[in-house]
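User: Could you go from structure to sequence for me? I need the amino acid at each position, not a summary. Structure tokens:
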């Protein structure tokens, strides 16, 4: 197995742990979205609803960032 792959996997696992154990701040949400975590997964890991995650993104201007990444 390639070391690059292991490093990338470790980063994803670390973010998953952060989402499970830390309060969901705007900064943590931005980082999770930058890493392409879907709202549904963030909601499951944080114990929030998908709507709460969606609303938090929009309240903090993250809808534009996501749209730019998608195009």
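Assistant: Here is the amino acid at each position, in order:
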């Amino acid at each position: 197995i390639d070391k690059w792959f292991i490093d990338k996997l470790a980063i994803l696992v670390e973010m998953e742990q952060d989402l499970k154990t830390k309060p969901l701040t705007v900064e943590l949400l931005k980082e999770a979205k930058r890493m392409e975590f879907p709202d549904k997964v963030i909601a499951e890991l944080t114990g929030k609803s998908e709507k709460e995650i969606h609303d938090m993104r929009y309240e903090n201007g993250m809808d534009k960032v996501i749209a730019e990444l998608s195009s």
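One structural detail worth keeping in mind: The two ends are 32 Å apart (CA to CA).
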